[in-house]
Each structure stands twice: as structure tokens, then as C-alpha cells.
Structures
1.
Amino acid sequence: MNNENKLKFSDDALALAQRMIKRYPEGKQKSALIPLLHVAQAEFGGWLSSDAMDYVASLLDITSIEVYEVASFYSMFNLKPVGKCVIEVCHTGPCWLLGSDDIVKYIEKKLSIKAGQTTADGMFTLKTVECLASCGTAPMMQIGETYHENLTLSKVDDIIHECKATVVDHVTHWSKKEIK
Ligand code: FES
């Protein structure tokens, strides 16, 4: 664990993190890891640097590797900088059968990036992710907390247009939200 870590939560985010930790019995504070990673991701620019993960480890009194293992497993955590709108297209079986590859290719062409990349203006990041549990409305993608379902190329156009018009403020989102 890095004790010289310069990153720190804002007062509000720290208070939220402490409330989350207190929900669990003494010695089981690691159970608050995923909620704290959401707060950290929001606080520190939409992604988790190693310093950010070290800081979370220090709050939970666990090792950094325990944090890295979890953060690198779940696709909702970004381990490198991302754009303001993170587009996550599901490419697992049912979505794939109903055209998720075409959706990904279409977005790649439209935004001039490949999956895993961010546009030069820092507006969009495109990711492909595994099943988001909305197989009945495939093909689908997630942006922030919103599911966009039964996608067509025309719907994708509308969604991207709307994203440009209403920039999602990921940075403050989770720190303002009480996670149930
Ligand atoms: S396969 Fe895409 S949501 Fe399940």
C-alpha cells in the first residue's frame, strides 16, 4: 500500500465512503470495495489509476492487489482515462446474434475510433462488454446508468447525438449519490 498517495476524496465523498464501510461488521470492511471503487472512479475523473486504487485500499485497510483484482475484473471500472460518454456495447451471444458486431462497427466508423479507444476530443469512449443482463432486448448498450435497448443504427445515431448535446457529468455523479 502506498502511504505517500497524494489522492484523497473530497469531504463529501469521504463521508459517503465512511458510511458505506460502516454498513459491514468489523473485519468485513472489504465488502464495501465495489461501492468505494464507484466513488473513486467518479471522484478521480472517471477512471481508476493505481494511485486511486491504492487510496481505496488504504481506506479499507486491505492490500492494493486486492483492489486491483476486483477493479480489473469488472468492465464498469476503467483502468485508463475515458471520455465523457462511455459507450458500452454488449457483444455476448444474444446481442451478437442480433447484430451487436454491426453496431460496434457502425459506432467505430461514426466516431473514427476502434473499440477500446477514446475520441480525440475526449467526448466518447467505446467499449465492448459481456452480457449486461438485458438479453431480451438485444442488441443493447449502456451509457452511464442508462440501458439503450433493441438498438438499430438509426437509434444509435439519435443516442450519440443526444450524448453530444447533454454531456454526462460522471465525475460528480457517484459522489452525490447514496448507494443503497
Ligand atoms: S447478451 Fe447482451 S445483454 Fe445479455
2.
Amino acid sequence: MRKDWSTSTGSGVDLHLDLAAGEGRRDGLERALRSAIRSGRLAAGSRLPATRVLAAELGLSRGTVSAAYDQLVAEGYLLARHGSGTTVAHVPDAGTRRSARSVAPLPHDLVPGTPDVTAFPVEVWLRAARRALNAAPSSAFGYAGDLRGRPELRASLADYLGRARGVAASPERIVVVGGYVQGLSLLARALGPGAFGMEDPCLPFHREIVTNASREIVALPVDGDGADVSGLGSGRRSPNCAAVVVTPAHQYPSGVTLAPARRRLLIEWARSSGGVVIEDDYDGEFRYGRQPVGALQGMDHEHVVYAGTCAKALAPALRLGWLVLPATLVDPVIEQLRLTTLQVEAPGQLTLAELINSHAYDRQIRLGRARYRRRRDALIEGLARLPRLGAAGISAGQHVLVRLPQDGPGEADVIEAARRRGLALSGLAEHWHAGHAATRPADGSQGLVVGYGTGSESAYRAALVVFFDVLADLYGGFETATSSLASVS
Ligand SMILES: Cc1ncc(COP(=O)(O)O)c(C=O)c1O
């Protein structure tokens, strides 16, 4: 049962909120406001009613309304300014990016998630597709005999993942999926009962996928050593978690690499509890330091599901990913695939197999690594001129976390200032699990999750100029924004 609240904000905007029965009053109000903001029903800049007014209209205490407002300010949904009340912040589709709604893009974009799709190797792809499709048996164009995916691709992935990522993969245990998102969704339906442990912070879209499969989420704290599962207990003390989902090579969004002791802890947790670890290796190929970081799955292929994707190395729009599964999970995952999309499209799989076999895939990754490293260096050099800011998670991937000082403008202020200059940014706030304040660092960590993959080289350079200008205006300490950009060409 839902209760509808309709009220009118001070600025005359109609505020329609609905509260699910059985929910705490503050939780209900927070959830209803978040959902109104995310869906766009409460637009950026709208002024919310004073706490006293809303409390009276909804029959809540003023303290409950103020606590809900404070929480949403901390999460970046609302802005509180002395003298001008509480207004709705601009919430970019941001960390989620995967919105059902289309929003007008801003001219500059440093939101993480998308690689430089202008560098997609169209000619290389077309040549590989021609070769692969000419050589394919005609049965490849019918319904799949084997729902795990094309045998050509599973064989080339087994070889590639073993040599490039240290994954113990055999073609029988590989299931080709429509990107990591489909893989996670299938796993959330295929595994036995129990919650999913998920890193806090993590990508909000992935939480939605898990809750959409009617799973509870347990928030796992993340510190400088990565995700910590010690709070889950072990053996029969942890019967409620069917899986934990982690990003060991480059935690999303903090960028931390999972420390060896934490890797062991994860494996011990899985062995003693009977749960599985889902390893999201979304950007594992993009490492810039000397130290390679192999896949966790190499430590125990009966308790770890390895999940990989083409989204960073080639393009998200290919919607191609893969799961390397413990033997017992292959059939349950295939059954969920059968009941949802039946199979993954075959021409793309055949083309990718050809790219991997001809080593064009490796070449593409090497080119990408050099490109993203240059872009990252330009970002880091610029940030080094802003003494009050620090960057974390710089050794890999296509994003860094820019930490903001506690005693200055908060992330919502930076995002709003950037938006006014035409630059889309993503903050840390939306990545925290709602209602799990216990796993959040006590300092309230304010930060920007800055993607350096998106856009062509020139678009990226232009976005960086705006970014540094915004930061210099807010935090000072930068003589010239453009001098650090020479290295991006
Ligand atoms: C944390 C994380 N996992 C996985 C992915 C890849 O998802 P998909 O393969 O569904 O495009 C991304 C892409 O941005 C990501 O940020």
C-alpha cells in the first residue's frame, strides 16, 4: 500500500510523494524524495518547502523532515544554502548513466563509464566481421544449439583470459553474455537464496539490478585495502549471503586495488560459507604501473565467478561480456539466459573471436592503454597544481577519484558549478548505499569520480580546461589550466 503525499513547495512547485507502507517515516521520506529527483519530477533548482511546512503537511515531526533533508544534502540530491532554503541539486545520470530516460547532454563530459568511442576501430571490426562471417557455418545464423555462446568465441576467450588476466578458464565454463549487466542479472536470478554483499560505494545501477531480482543487499565497507568481508562472518554465521560482488583490480569508484590479505579473506569467506565471489573485472586490462594485478578467480575457480566485458576495451554498444563459472553454476545461469533472451547475438561473437585470434584485440588494448595513460597523466598533472585536492585510484582504468577537502565547497557545489559551465561531473554521493551510514567513512568523504575515457581527444582536452577552471575558482591554487594539457594530443 502506498500513501500519496501532495503538497506545495514555497515556490509553488507541486510536490507529490508516495510512502510505502511499513517503511520508517524518515526512510520513506528520503526514498520518496530521491525517487522524485531521479525521475525528474523534482527538477534541479526547485525549492523544497521549509521543514516546518512539510512536517505540518505530512504529519511528521520537524526533526524527521530535517534529518531526511540533511541526509539528501550529504548524498548530493539537495543543496542547502543559508538564507535561500533547500533546493534540488543537479543529479547527472552520472554513475548510473544507464537511465531509462534520455537527458540533454552537456557540451563537456567527465562522467565515468564510457571509453573514447570515437576511437572504435570500425575498419578493423569490419574486416574481422567479413572474415568471421564468411568462415562461419550456416548453423551460426540459426537458433543456438549451445546457449553458452559460440564455441569459436569461448575457445578464444579461454586462451586470452588465461594469458592476459590469469583466469583459469575452460570453454565449457564460459557463458557469453550481453555485457556485465546481463551477467549480473542472470547470476542474481540463478544463485540460491540469500543476499548479495556489494561494495559501499559501488555503481548504483548494479545495486538496482540486484534488487530488481528481489535480492537484499548487504553493504561491504571499502577502505585503502579494498572491500572488507570480515563483517559477514564465516561458516554458518554467514548463511544469508549467496554472493559478494567485488571489483578487485580497480574498485569502482574508489580505484583501490584489493590487497592480498583481503583477497585471501574473500576466498576464505566463500569456501566456509558456500557463497560465491563475483569478480567484476571491468577495466582489468588497463593498468599503468609495472605491477600486473591478476584476476582473483585464479586463486579459486570453484568459488569465484569471473566477469569480463568489451565495454572498456572496445565499445559498450557491442553488449558483449563473459562469465567464467564454477562448474555447478553453468546450468543454472544458462537456464536463466534461456528464460530471458534465449541467446546472445552470434555475428558479434564470431567477429570478436576473430579479433582475439588475430591479436587485433590485444593491439586495440595496447593502443587504448597508451591513450588513456596520456589522458590520465594530464588530469593528474593538473590536479597536482591544486594543493587542496588529491587524486586516488590512479594506477588503472579510465577514472580517478578526486578527493575534496572537508572544509571547502562540497561535491554537490562543484557538480553544480560545473553544470553551469556546461560540464557534466559525477560525485561520490550517489555511489553510497542508502541507509547504510555505518559503512561510510566518518569524515563523510566528499569526492568526484572523474572519467578520463569519454570523448575524443579534443573533447577531453576542452572538458579538462573547464574542469580545472571550476576547481581553481572554488579552491584556488592554479595558475594556468591549459599548460598541463600539452601531453594530451
Ligand atoms: C563497475 C563497472 N562494472 C562493469 C562495467 C561494464 O558493464 P557492461 O559490460 O554491462 O557495459 C562498467 C562499465 O562502465 C563498470 O563501471
3.
Amino acid sequence: MIEVRDLTKNYGPHRAIDNLNFSVRKGEVVGFLGPNGAGKSTTMKIITGYMAPSSGIVKVGGFDVFENPIEVKEKIGYLPEIPPVYFDMYVRDYLSFVANLKKVPKAKVRSNVDRAIEKTNLGGVANRLIQNLSKGFKQRVGIAQAIVSDPEVLILDEPTVGLDPRQVAEIRQLIKELAGQHTIILSTHILPEVQASCQRIIIINRGKIVAEDTISGLTQRMGGSFQVQVRVRRNSEGLQKSLLNVTGVAQVISDGDGQLQISMKKDDEVFEKISAHIVNAGAGLLQMQPMGESLEDIFIKLTAEGASKGVTA
Ligand SMILES: Nc1ncnc2c1ncn2[C@@H]1O[C@H](COP(=O)(O)OP(=O)(O)OP(=O)(O)O)[C@@H](O)[C@H]1O
Ligand SMILES: [Mg+2]
């Protein structure tokens, strides 16, 4: 659905993105992750046709973003970094305006606007002036305008920034609901966000892709070994020894009080074997919690160079 080929953007002498290549399949939700100044917003502005690249090609739904800008813009809902809202309009009127602009059929404008208002919890402020809304509510209006035309593709630049925790959870839920029918790229610094909403992540640092994988694939590639914390009702001492016989288990540490820390090969099968072993031993499994390597560790490792030098700031 989205094809990015050899994409480069220079701002004067500064290269913001450097020969990016990736694609996103229809219905996929991809998280775009990177430190400040990595080039996330620049890439999104180019994909949505709001800025021209220095070189390279972007296609959305088979259309070249720069040769067929109208077709592409009709397909895309875009939440820019700074929500593009008209401050002197009322929320509902503004959303109807955007729906018309996006060529939503007249008969559907009202129901689309209602749906966008409902999904972003704007019901209470639908008849208020946008300029009088709090920051989080302006952000919600930004999300509402991105989804109001029910676009095939959603490009969301830090969708949950400035939102309260409850709304963050609701927006994540919304993104999950949209997955499947919609193709979504979202950028964020918030790591649990990609874990919660995305099937795949692209990590970008100093304008280059440094990793592109599923979350579990990435963890596996970077870490290899993985820790699980287990709590059992009885026989933790016995388990400490017997678990070592499970293929893939490297080390077991017991605190003598029912808690075990297991170092294992990162592999779903090993995870399953460990749980079956504990259950078969009749130890009374109370809790089994993966401890990582966390995505945060991976992110810091992959982006350490640019981040520590601060070269892209
Ligand atoms: N209009 C511009 N003129 C000059 N340089 C720019 C411009 N916009 C962005 N840059 C530079 O390009 C690089 C990438 O910026 P971009 O906004 O794409 O990063 P980002 O990954 O979105 O960062 P953040 O997480 O802070 O939003 C940065 O070094 C930035 O300073
Ligand atoms: Mg940005």
C-alpha cells in the first residue's frame, strides 16, 4: 500500500533523511520510532505529499505522491506533528469542512463526523471554538480530522502526545480497531505505544533505518536470551534443578520464597515448555512474567550513537 524508495531529503546542507527504503502492506500498522530529530516527521510529510523529497519515490496505493497528489491525498488521513486545526472554527463545523474537502459523499458527512467525534470523545466540546480547547482536546480534534473521511491510509505523527492516560488508552484501542481495514503508520517516542498497537516497527536514527522487524523478532535479534519471572506456590527448590532439564533454559535463580528467575532462549516454544514443566510438577503456578529484554533497551542500543552525540538535534 505504501512504497518508499531511495528517499532522501536535504534541508540546505543538512541531510534529514538518507536513502530510506521500506514498504507497508495493506492493513498493516507500522510504528515509526526514533529519537528527536531522527527524521520521522520529515518522512511522514513526504509520504503525505506535504513536502517534496530531494530524491526518491513514494507511492501510495500505486499512485506516485508527486505525480498524482490529489488521488493520494484523498486516500490519506494525516495527523501532522502540529495539528492543522482552524482555531476560529467550531469542532463540528471544522470536521464537516474537512469531510467535504476530502470528498466524503454529502449524505455521509454527518455520520462520518459523528463517528469521528465519538471515537475521539469530543462529544462534550463539539459546539465549542477550537481555539478555546485545551491542548489534549486540540490533539483529539487533530485525530478526528485524520479519520473523518475514513481513509484507507492513516499517517499519524505522535498521535497520543499531550493526551491524558485514559485518552491514550482509548486512542490505542481506536488504532487497533482501525487495523486490518486501514493501513497505518504512526510515529512515537512512547515505546509501550508501539508494543500496544503495532505489528511491525521501523527504527530510524539520524535519517537512516537501523532496524525493521516485528517486536518479537527485534527482541530476539538483539537479545537472544530472555528472562522470565515465575512465582509458584510450592516446590520452588525442586523446580530450580528440574527446570534446567528443559531445552532452552540457561539458568534458574530461586529466592527460596516461591520466586524463580529463569534465563531462557527467546522462543515461544521454550516459554510453553517451561510453563508445562511447572504445571506438570504440580508446583502451583501463580505467575509467569516475561522480563525482557525490553524494547526500551533495544531502542537505546540502536539509537545510542546519534542520541549521545546529539548530532541531529
Ligand atoms: N524545515 C526544516 N528546515 C531545516 N531543518 C529541518 C527542518 N525540518 C526538520 N529539520 C531537521 O531535520 C531533521 C529531522 O527532523 P524531523 O522533524 O523529521 O525529526 P523527528 O524524527 O520528527 O523528530 P522529533 O521526534 O523531535 O519530532 C532534524 O535534524 C531537524 O532539525
Ligand atoms: Mg517529529
4.
Amino acid sequence: MGLLEGSGAYWRFLGQCTQCGHCTGACPSLTAAGLSLGGIAEGMLDAERSASTPEELACAIASDPALVQAVRGCFFCTSCKNTCFAHNDVCDLVYQARVDFQRLGLIPREAWSSVLVDQEWDIFTAYRAIHGIGYADLTRHVASEGHEAEGDCAVAFFPGCSLAAYGPELTREAFAAVEELGGKATLIDCCCGSSLKSAGFFDRAEALCERNAEEIEASGARELVCVCPGCANDMRAALAKRGLDVEVRLLSGWLAERGFEPRRPLPEGPLCLAKSCQDRDGSYLEQTREALGLGEGEGVSIFNGCCGAGGAVSAFDPSRQGRQADAKLSFAPEGSTVVSMCPTCTYTYAYRLMEAPRDVRSKHYAELLFESQFDWDKTFAQLGGMWSGEYGAWLAQVFA
Ligand code: SF4
Ligand code: SF4
């Protein structure tokens, strides 16, 4: 291997890129950098050629602000991919570049120390421990006080890290519905690892999904019901890699197929459905529309593009997440509700609405299906208080 782990990937990308620049025009980050995606591959290879040690290579990359902007400013929203006649895969390229950045020490520790979701402590597990949120009683495939490990589950439920931490009542209500409609259920109480990928730990993210797949195999479940499209995609890939015949479904579509009726009326006012970046063909969004009983032209509009949370861009350019969320929220009419597919998007919009209030609400689709709701005021207050309260010193030490 040369100095760059991704040399092969960069050469392959360049071989398929005409440098037409269409992707640049589709992306504010690439526009700011003045680079196309092919330019990222070229920049990485140029830097490698100019260096004979990893330290020299790190210096060469760090002294190219356009390259750093293009790699660390990427939301992985794939908007650029839609403009590329060759359908070049931006995620493959930028994830690889993040891996090289991480190996070369170009992503500072404070950008990722609290989201190492394959370790004992990350921001979600710390929040849960401090606020007494746990699911040992629902995690039936793992032995705990009160039950042995059970391998005869019919279905596994994967709420994902944000929902499990910030919406415990909603998690439990959704779990109960999955069990009622799908048979004996267990909860996979883990993360899909997307924050690891953003930080350049691609292998660790894959290993985490493999660990989840191992748990699903041990549970005996033949169906995996995920709340978030990103978790569903990553877990589908991991289960296939392990050769397991487990069907992966999004909660909304799975419920709709079983005749589940929403337990509360739809919010008043227009609804803006935010398509997840991970929902490339829009099929998860369509399933969700069906679950909510929303047809065409019923005061429903669709948001495309990232909420601002993707790719851990906020750790590189702190104000950009807010600007991106504002850009998306500017399409939401007064009195409307933005309905996201991914709980992290719901969090991101809710946070922005707290910072810059307007007459718009942020909801996850599960909140439109079930009685239980997120309580963002409480969550944000508790998250902020963690750092200054009795656990502040411990958190500062763990995430130093
Ligand atoms: S749109 Fe595709 S072919 Fe054109 S510069 Fe971007 S990656 Fe290359
Ligand atoms: S994935 Fe999104 S943020 Fe990343 S380069 Fe493409 S358009 Fe820009």
C-alpha cells in the first residue's frame, strides 16, 4: 500500500470522471471549494505524489484548504450524484477520503470523541445512563437479570441510537406494536455506526453492523424492523454479508402492511415530508405516506437534501448545520409540520427551531403513528445540563 489507503479508489474514480463539473454546481460545499468530485480524487493523489512520508502527506493535504473543505464539508446527501451522468458514487469517494484523513490525523479528536458508538460510552449511552434509560427487559436475546438469552424471537426491532436515547416512551410503544403484530420480539439496542463512518472509521462501522447481525442471528428473528432508513440500509448490507435470510423493513411500511392505524389524528396545517438522504429512490418515503394515509395533493410537500446533520459537518464548520437546516426549513410554510424519516433529522430540525423559533414543528413519522412523542425541550435541557451538572467532570474526562 502507498501512503494513501484509498489510492486505488481515487484512481478508479478519476477513470470514470470527465471533470464536467456538474456535481460542483449541485453542491454549496464543492462550489465553495471550487472542486468537482473528481478534483477530490485528483487532489488526494497529487498530495501523495508530493510526499514521501505520512507526515509530509498530512501537511500537503492540510495546506490545501479546498481539498479539506470538499472532504470534511460533505453531508453525504448524494445530491451531486443525481447530476453525474456516470453516477459516480460520492459516498465511496468521500468515505475513503475521510479514512485517509483519519489515518493521517487530519480529523481532530474533539470532532468524534463523543460519537464512538462502538465503545462503552458515547453521547447516547452517557445520556441514557445519566437519565436512567434502559431496555434490558426488551433485549430478550441477551441474558440479563430477569431472563435468560432467548433464541426463539420472530422479529427484531432496531430503534437506532437517537430514538432509543431521546424517545424512550416512543421506543417502548413502537416495540409493543411490533410485538403485537409480528410475534415475539427483541430489541437490538445498538447503533448502525454512521457517525463512525463520518469520522473516518469505516471498518469499525462495518464491524459494528456485523456485531448487530450476529445478535440478530442469535435471536432467531427472521425480520428486522428499523425506524431509520440509514439503519435499514446498513443492516441489510451486513445481514446479506453474513448470509442471513432476514428481511429488513422500515417501521412505517411494515406497520402499514399489517393494517396498523395511526393512534392520533394528523397534525393540523401543511405537512412537509423530509426525504432521508439514505432513501435514494424514495421508497421509504412512499411507505411512510401510505402508513400515514397521505395521498397525492393533500397539503403534503416533499423536502429533499440533508437536514444539516449528515457527515458530521458541524464538527468542521459549526455554523453550517444551522444554515443548512434553515435552508430546508425556509420551504416549510407557516403553521406546518416537518416530518422526517430519520430521528437524527427530527432532532436537528427541533434543535434549529429552538435556536431560531418560527411557527413550524419538527416531528418524526413515528410520532404521527403513536401516542408517545419526543419532548425536545426536556431533552435539550438534559443534554445541556449533563456537562455542567454532577456528571460534567466525568463526561469531560471520558470524551477528552
Ligand atoms: S458530475 Fe460526475 S463526471 Fe462530472 S465532475 Fe462530477 S463526478 Fe465527475
Ligand atoms: S454528497 Fe452532498 S454535500 Fe457531499 S459533495 Fe455531494 S452534494 Fe455535496
